[in-house]
Amino acid sequence: MKKLITFLYAALAGVAISIGGAVNLASDSKPVGAALFSVGLFAVCTLGLNLFTGKVCYVFDNPPAYAGDCALIWLGNLAGAVLAGQALRLTRLSGAVEKAADLSRTKLEDGPGSIFLLALFCNILIYFAVESYKNNPHQLGKYLGLFLGVAVFVAAGFEHCVANMFYFTAGGAWSAHAAWYMVLMTLGNAAGGVVFPLCAKLKRRYG
């Protein structure tokens, strides 16, 4: 039952991030779309949902079984994002679907090294956002960190694997190539998420 709940809360996180992606697609202003995308991570953090890009940051602070939970969460995020992306395709928001297709094409025409590095940078910011929400003692700072972490990665064009699960689905862009790039994005997000936690562990041990 615990695994089922973990998966369910991961699927809900995939839906939450997809809603952020949908409002980003619907916005004619890049800064506004980037800002409003933060509703996804806001929902994840305030409702206690399971998002791979947030959970993976703490993989070295937990027992080995935690890595398995992260894999299950990734699958749940995929299920929720695919469900939301397919649902969007059934609505009147054809403009958002077309933008998702264009955005997906841009991502899939990029080089693998670029995709990995952009994903790495993305999760550095996700770590900042999650840590701010968890540990900032000031209420304003807690939510400002959450907002800025997301808005900056979206505005910069960094790669978030769960958001891209939604974009690829809404844009009808899934293929073997897209699946390979999703693996790269996931690995890049995982690498970026542990950069600062590992440095902090080194500082505590040797600093």
User: Percent range for helical residues?
Assistant: over 70%
CATH class: Mainly Alpha
> What is the mean predicted local confidence, pLDDT?
95
Q: Radius of gyration from the CA trace?
A: 16 Å
The CATH superfamily appears as Glycerol uptake facilitator protein
Instruction: Tell me the distance between the termini.
Output: 42 Å
Helix and strand sequence: HHHHHHHHHH
Tell me which CATH architecture applies here: Up-down Bundle
Structure classification: mainly alpha
How would you summarize this macromolecular structure in one to three sentences?
The protein is mainly α and 207 residues long.
Fold and architecture overview:
The protein has ten helices and no strands. 82% of the residues lie in helices and 0% in strands. The protein has 207 residues and is mainly α.
Keywords:
single chain; 207 residues; mainly alpha; Glycerol uptake facilitator protein; 82% helix; 0% strand
